[in-house]
Amino acid sequence: MNAEADGAPGGVTAGELLEAAADLVAAGSDAGVRMRLLGGIAVYHLTSSSREPPLKRRYHDFDIVVPRKSGAAAGRVFEALGYRADSHFNALHGAHRMIFRSSRGFVVDVLVGTFQMCHRLELGHDLPEAGLTIHPADLLLTKLQIIEIEEKDLQDSAALLSDLAVSHQDLGISPERFIRPLAGDWGFFHTVERNLPRVAEYGRTHLDRSRAEAVAGSATALEQAMSDAPKSVKWKMRARVGEKVTWYELPEEVG
């Protein structure tokens, strides 16, 4: 396998990134710090579709989330495994986010409690007790909350919707968990309702019929769950305003 085809610059493959993430999760467990993987490498771990064209893509790094107030302990785990902290960035933002660099050149982005891009998603308070990744429903939400959704996010979302059932099972995409942050936040809800059809369309134009139908069927099930969920008063009031007022934030790039 060509390392450059599926891995990070410098020849680190997706499999090696996943192995490094697993080592960190295990070391965190030994130190009493619950760490879970998110981002593209989490999708790579959970789905076979992401490992083959047309959903196969390159990965340059990986992301880890830890519970709120666990950042300092997590930092010690990284340093013990030879990762170098971005001291300046971490001093400024360490309460919410930290960056560490491996000796092999790839970067690990550590989120402390919260995923924040176009919308805010609380993750650290109930991370799964076992496994490498965050809950699949949360993982999908991290992809669908991007207002200017990119092809890599469409690929990852399609892989999740193709390979994982919308179900109450541990390995499925829980509809209750999926709608929980959306039923009280119209802006988050609206971004997701705009993006789910885009993922279904991506499936129709890029996947074989069977997998495209699986993506479309799962997207429809989640759309129905969103429609059926009781909405908060705050949600209903914001819905009346609609797109007249900007409903999302644009994330800042980190240099």
Give a written overview of the molecule.
The model is unreliable at 1-5 (pLDDT under 50). The protein has one domain: 2-Layer Sandwich (Beta Polymerase, domain 2). The protein has helices spanning 3-6, 14-30, 40-46, 71-80, 87-93, 136-144, 151-163, 175-179, 186-206, 209-228, 233-241, and strands at 36-38, 62-66, 84-85, 97-101, 107-112, 114-116, 120-122. The two termini are 31 Å apart. The longest helix is centred in the last third of the chain and has 21 residues, at 186-206. The chain has 255 residues and is of the alpha+beta class. Helix 3 (40-46) runs parallel beside helix 7, helix 6 (136-144) runs antiparallel to helix 7 and helix 7 (151-163) crosses helix 10. The strands form two sheets. It has a five-stranded mixed β-sheet. Strands 6-7 form a two-stranded antiparallel sheet. It is built from eleven helices and seven strands. It is globular and about 50 Å long.
What secondary-structure arrangement, pairings included, does this model have?
Elements: H1 3-6, H2 14-30, E1 36-38, H3 40-46, E2 62-66, H4 71-80, E3 84-85, H5 87-93, E4 97-101, E5 107-112, E6 114-116, E7 120-122, H6 136-144, H7 151-163, H8 175-179, H9 186-206, H10 209-228, H11 233-241
Parallel strand pairs: 2-5
Antiparallel strand pairs: 1-2, 3-4, 4-5, 6-7
Helix pairs in contact: 3-7, 6-7, 7-9, 7-10, 9-10
Search tags:
255 residues; 5-stranded mixed β-sheet; two-stranded antiparallel sheet; 11% strand; disordered N terminus
Task: Describe the structure concisely for a colleague.
This protein is α+β, with helices and mostly antiparallel strands and 255 residues long.
